[in-house]
Design goal:
The chain is α+β, with helices and mostly antiparallel strands. It has helices at about 15-35, 105-110, 140-155, 230-235, 335, 345-380, 410-435, 445-455, 455-470, 475-505, 515-540, 565-590, 600-625, 635-640, 645-660, 665-685, 690-700, 700-725, 735-740, and strands at about 65-70, 70-75, 75-80, 115-120, 125-135, 160, 165, 170, 170-175, 180-185, 185-190, 190-195, 215, 220-230, 240-250, 265-270, 275-285, 310. It has a 7-stranded mixed beta sheet with strand order 10-9-15-14-17-5-18. A 4-stranded antiparallel beta sheet has the order 4-1-7-8, with no helix packed on it. Helix 7 (about 410-435) packs antiparallel against helix 13 (about 600-625). It is elongated. It contains 19 helices and 18 strands. Strand 7 (about 165) and strand 8 (about 170) form a beta hairpin. The two termini are about 20 Å apart.
Length: about 750
């Protein structure tokens, strides 16, 4: 009797999904706890600023609270504009000592333009109806007529102010129609009522605005600033913890006597007379903190007679809400996020994703622990050639399964770029989840992503070159060039085209020529050389396959409708998209509806779930393709998971028509232009999962080394027994020699 080769049949040796699920559940619990506490802890990235009264001002304590203004944007237009720079933009009050804080790369790319404003408040002093500036409009003056027309357009498109105090957005809170309180980090410049009498935008919450075909300008704001003081820690200095405002519209009768209680400031559609617009504000300071930490109310002190309307501050505990009494500087962003809580929706998304993963894990477990395990047992129990049965399905493809696909160059480039995007996204979300990229550090998220993408050219070149060599490619120079230039070149061309539109429209989001040169220098001077370095080392190695590829390709039988590429590709992309579509909705709201996104813990967890879903789908679909005796799985596997990007594109089109009110050709072109960049990035890093996951599954012990070795050893024993019975074996021939042959 011949010595038989027997595989171990313990099903727990083939476990693939259980450790991953255990790790995922643990990570989900940790990130869930972190997400629930994210509102109470973050790393702001900036040192706190101390404030005090003018009599106690020092080098470390400021006595003046400065208000900064950011760009103006709208949910009905993709074009943001600076507060007051270009002659064609909005005509608001200018700061005589204009200062622009330094901006990082992320702020420049997002079009944020922060500058100083004439709104400056002495700390702890209440001011009532203080004049800021007066703007005159005469229809006989072409320049003033253009500014007035642009102001009407901004009101009609519901453009929003974005003001900043001590690095905090100034919040506008108002009650909606159903009685709920809604807060937003921006407030409108005005509202209007159509000819039909229909109120638009903010006019809905102002019943006194009741004239048809009239624009109402919010030329007055009531600002409330809350601060916290702890004499035991910071020497009695105060730190600002919240800033709110209420926009108002008042028509002032004269500059000598300002009264912020008159009729609203109206701007007719057609105005032929000269008129003035006076911008005013009122400010008050409120204490946030325990009553015991405060002494008696200090005596009233007078300011210099800069404005007779300034009064002493009211030292009182905040009566706005009970939670405002306990605001600390470290948690001062909590009140901003109160009305933006999506925690219930986030947990629903997580549970939905977990159900999908459990389903896929169950399918993978059934295949590995039942189907393959049963095949191994059957092969081990064969004691003679009479027991052998004819192979079928995936068992016939061990000589063709690793056959190089068509267009191997393009596949290798996509896999290399997908690796670069995947690592960049993982590190960026991890840093954001840990709090290093908090909302207070504006532009840090985009800056981190761009810098990481530039520095991660080496992994992209390594994966692309190694995969290209594995697929027996010979044009390695072309591979070296296409990896760092193809996909980034498409993105840069798209962004340049949209930047031309922004230049023409005079938008603040237009990137300057110098910034474009800097981005090109980072790309060609850093990313491309690093990609060449990675490609140099990757070209020296290739993936080792457990079996050799036959010289003659095997005939592929006729496929049914369900095993043809279109059906499998469309079905395979649904499951990953189902894991992330809720997060996509929140991200799109953050980008196009100008809402603040802060649930990075949930986003990171969903990102991990997406990767696992794509990998498990790769194992399942590769198994089904091979069972149908179709070994052309490389491109089909790539498109199966990357087809999720097509669903993303379809969803963004639906979001554009169903959720947004964007008007204008330029805004529509910009929306879909930026969307195509998002779709391409999503296409690359999701498409990476399927070929890599399928390749790993086929090279793994469960699906390749043991299974294929079992098949070959069984066939070798059968051939050895048959030739031995017929006396056809040369002297010294063994079953192992036939196996190796």
């Amino acid at each position: 009797m011949s010595t038989r080769f027997r595989l171990g049949t313990n099903p727990w040796r083939l476990r693939l999904a259980r450790p991953g699920l255990r790790w995922l559940l643990g990570l989900g619990l940790f990130l869930g706890l972190q997400a629930s506490r994210s509102a109470a802890f973050y790393l702001p990235g900036l040192a706190p600023v101390n404030f005090c009264e003018a009599s106690r001002e020092t080098a470390t304590c400021k006595s003046t609270v400065a208000l900064f203004v950011n760009r103006l944007d709208s949910v009905e237009s993709v074009l943001p504009y600076e507060y007051n720079t270009f002659s064609s933009s909005f005509d608001f009050c200018k700061d005589s000592e204009k200062r622009n804080p330094s901006e990082n790369l992320g702020q420049v790319l997002f079009g944020e333009r922060i500058s100083s404003s004439p709104y400056k408040f002495p700390f702890n002093r209440t001011g009532t109806c203080i004049k800021v500036c007066v703007k005159s409009y005469d229809t006989a003056n072409d320049d003033q007529e253009k500014k007035l027309a642009f102001l009407r357009k901004g009101i009609r498109l519901n453009y929003q102010h974005h003001w900043i105090i001590d690095n905090m957005p100034v919040i506008w809170c108002h009650n909606t129609g159903d009685g709920t309180k809604y807060c937003t980090p921006g407030f409108p410049i005005g509202c209007f009522i159509a000819k039909s009498g229909e109120s638009k935008h903010a006019c809905l919450i102002h019943p006194e605005f009741n004239k048809s075909h009239i624009y109402f300008l919010f030329n007055h704001v009531d600002i409330t600033i809350a601060y916290h003081e702890d004499s035991g820690r910071n020497g009695g200095f105060a730190r600002l913890v919240s800033a709110r405002l209420e926009p108002q519209s008042h028509k002032h009768s004269g500059e000598g006597r300002l009264a912020c209680n008159g009729p609203p400031m109206e701007i007719p559609e057609e105005h032929t007379e000269k008129f003035n617009v006076t911008y005013t504000y009122s400010v008050q300071f409120e204490v946030s903190g325990p009553c015991s930490s405060w002494g008696p109310r200090p005596p009233e002190t007078s300011l210099n007679l800069l404005d007779s309307h300034l009064q002493t501050a009211v030292w009182k505990q905040s009566s706005r809400s009970s939670e405002n009494k306990s605001i600390k500087w470290a948690s001062r962003w909590d009140y901003i996020l109160d009305s933006m809580s999506h925690t219930n929706i986030q947990w629903l998304s997580i549970m939905n994703s977990f159900v999908i993963i459990l389903f896929l894990s169950g399918m993978v477990a059934i295949i590995i622990l039942r189907t393959l395990h049963r095949d191994i047992i059957r092969y081990n129990e064969m004691s003679s050639s009479e027991d052998a049965q004819e192979d079928f399905g995936w068992k016939l493809l061990h000589g063709d399964v690793f056959r190089p696909p068509r267009n191997r160059m393009l596949l290798s480039v996509f896999l290399g770029q997908g690796t670069q995007v995947l690592i960049m996204t993982f590190i960026t979300l991890l840093l954001a989840c840990l709090g290093f990229l908090s909302p207070s550090n504006r532009g840090a998220l985009m800056t981190c992503a761009v810098v990481l993408w530039v520095l991660l050219g080496t992994p992209a070149g390594y994966v692309s070159a190694r995969m290209y060599k594995t697929l027996k490619g010979v044009k390695w120079k072309t591979n070296f060039l296409l990896t760092p230039l193809l996909c980034p070149g498409v993105v840069f061309a798209d962004l340049f085209f949209m930047n031309v539109i922004l230049w023409v429209e005079g938008s603040s989001a237009a990137i300057s020529f110098g910034t474009l040169i800097g981005i090109l220098a980072m790309w060609c001077g850093i990313s491309v050389p690093l990609t060449f370095v990675g490609a140099y080392f990757g070209a020296k190695k290739k993936f080792r396959f457990p079996v050799c590829t036959n010289q003659i390709p095997r005939h592929i039988p006729r496929q049914s409708f369900f095993t043809k590429p279109p059906f499998g590709i469309m079905i395979g992309g649904i499951l990953p998209f189902g894991c992330v579509f809720i997060q996509l909705f929140l991200i799109l709201n953050s980008i196009w509806s100008h809402q603040m996104y802060f649930m990075f813990g949930f986003l990171f967890l969903v990102f991990i779930i997406l990767l696992i879903t794509c990998s498990e789908a790769a194992v399942l679909l590769c198994y089904f393709y091979l069972c149908a005796e179709d070994y052309h799985w490389w491109w089909r596997a790539f498109f199966t998971s990357s087809f999720t990007a097509v669903y993303l594109l379809i969803y963004t089109v639906h979001y554009f028509f169903a959720k947004l009110q964007i008007t204008g050709t330029a805004s529509a072109i910009l929306y879909f232009g930026y969307t195509m960049v998002m779709v391409l990035i999503f296409f690359l890093f999701t498409g990476l999962q399927q070929p890599i996951g399928g390749l790993c599954s086929l090279r793994g012990k469960g699906l390749s080394s043991r299974i294929l070795h079992s098949i070959r050893s069984t066939r070798g024993r059968q051939a050895y027994q048959c030739q031995e019975c017929r006396g056809e074996l040369p002297a010294g021939t063994s079953a192992e020699m036939i196996n190796s042959h």
